[in-house]
Amino acid sequence: MIIAIDGPAASGKGTIARRLAAHFGLPHLDTGLLYRAVGAKALADHVNFEDEAALAALAALAGALNLAALDPEALKSGAVGEAASRVAALPQVRAKLLTVQQDFARQPGGAVLDGRDIGTVIAPEAEVKIFVTASPQARAARRHAELAARGEGVTPEEVLADILKRDERDSGRASAPLIRAGDAEILDTTTLNIDESWQAALALVARRRAS
Ligand code: C5P
């Protein structure tokens, strides 16, 4: 069984995906980490997004990423998230990351993947697709709490502005934009806590499998 979880930043999709994977004994891939790894490299190298040679080098790096070596903790900062959304708009980077994600999705027994284009591009054949969403204000409050816990000194207003900018970039890009697959179930977590979101997701999976 392939379970595709898509949605905007801080919608709760990562936690839901992790818990579904543990519940069904399936491997899980947080595909945002791939873009974050490329974004971190772009940040470290001060990549000029107008420089074609530099972008080709970034795409080559994307093609050589080792899933097992990705360190979520090192890639979770707000600055890396912002850089990730910039590199994620580059078709050459997305093309290089396609195969590794599709191979992961199609492994025997299935998998859970979360991201922005899993149900639409990476695994359109997924048996279960959930589009997790929440209001920008609710997502900003969660992300702010997360960043504050990491010691990042950002204001709630800055986090909301960043979330809105990322939403616009992720939804407006030409290459694999963030969009709900026509056959995805919508799960709005605005008023739900983590446990309620997870229970709702589990109920959606059960309904999908029964139909
Ligand atoms: O989910 P996360 O916030 O870690 O993702 C970072 C960025 O990576 C997103 O803002 C998005 O631009 C990009 N991304 C993507 N496609 C995916 C996963 C992430 O474009 N499947």
Q: Which features does this protein show?
A:
Rossmann fold; alpha/beta; binds cytidine-5'-monophosphate; 211 residues
Describe the structure.
It is a single chain. Strands 2-3-1-4-5 form a 5-stranded parallel β-sheet, sandwiched between helices. The model has no long low-confidence stretch (mean pLDDT 94). The chain has helices spanning 13-24, 32-44, 52-63, 78-87, 91-105, 118-122, 136-149, 156-172, 194-210; strands at 2-6, 28-30, 111-115, 128-133, 185-188. It is globular and about 50 Å long. The protein is built from 9 helices and 5 strands. The protein has a single domain, classed as P-loop containing nucleotide triphosphate hydrolases (Rossmann fold, 3-Layer(aba) Sandwich). With 211 residues, it is of the alpha/beta class. Bound molecules: cytidine-5'-monophosphate. Cytidine-5'-monophosphate binds at residues 9, 31-32, 35-36, 81, 84-85, 88, 115-117, 166, 170.
Distance between the termini: 14 Å
The SSE string, one letter per element, is EHEHHHHEHEHHEH
Classification by helices and strands: alpha/beta
Describe the strand arrangement of the main beta sheet, using strand numbers: 2-3-1-4-5
Number of domains: 1
From the coordinates shown, what is the CATH architecture? 3-Layer(aba) Sandwich
Q: Sum up the overall morphology in one term.
A: globular
Secondary structure topology:
Blueprint: E1 2-6, H1 13-24, E2 28-30, H2 32-44, H3 52-63, H4 78-87, H5 91-105, E3 111-115, H6 118-122, E4 128-133, H7 136-149, H8 156-172, E5 185-188, H9 194-210
Parallel strand pairs: 1-3, 1-4, 2-3, 4-5
Bound molecules: cytidine-5'-monophosphate.
